[in-house]
Design a protein that fits this description.
The chain has a three-stranded antiparallel sheet with strand order 1-3-2. It is 68% helix and 8% strand. It has two domains: 8-69, Arc Repressor Mutant, subunit A (Orthogonal Bundle); 88-120, no CATH class. It is mainly alpha-helical. A hairpin with a 2-residue loop joins strand 2 and strand 3 (62-65). It has helices at residues 8-20, 25-36, 40-52, 69-85, 89-99, 104-119, and strands at 23-24, 56-59, 62-65.
Length: 120
């Protein structure tokens, strides 16, 4: 995947697909007219761009995701950690928690995740 970032408008468009997939391209055009006030050509231009980036596919007039929203978010997170923290998850967590306190519930959830990973 060449680009793991979405601009604000790209995110709105992607959410329409993720919420409705698989979706016929004609229905996608209709939804984009309603929600984004786009013309057909704008929808197809954006679709082609995001298909080219490996996020979605348009096969036989049916649009679906190559990556789920969760997979896309995970890939984005990995790239941020790799680029900004030399791939170090502990360095990321240290930076994150230096500015934002996490709750006891969040700590317990993270601990459960760690315990699950250790158990594998």
């Amino acid at each position: 995947m060449e680009e793991l970032r979405l601009g604000a408008v790209e995110s709105q468009f992607a959410d329409i697909i993720w919420q409705n997939e698989p979706i016929p391209s004609g229905e996608l055009v209709r939804l984009c007219e309603q929600k984004l006030e786009w013309k057909k050509s704008t929808t197809y231009t954006m679709l082609k761009r995001l298909c080219g980036r490996g996020i979605f596919k348009n096969e036989n007039g049916v649009v679906s995701s190559v990556l789920t929203k969760e997979e896309f978010g995970a890939a984005q997170s990995e790239k941020i950690i790799e680029d900004s923290f030399d791939g170090s998850l502990p360095a990321f967590i240290a930076a994150f928690t230096s500015r934002k306190k996490i709750s006891a519930e969040e700590i317990e959830e993270i601990q459960r995740m760690i315990d699950d990973i250790k158990g594998e």
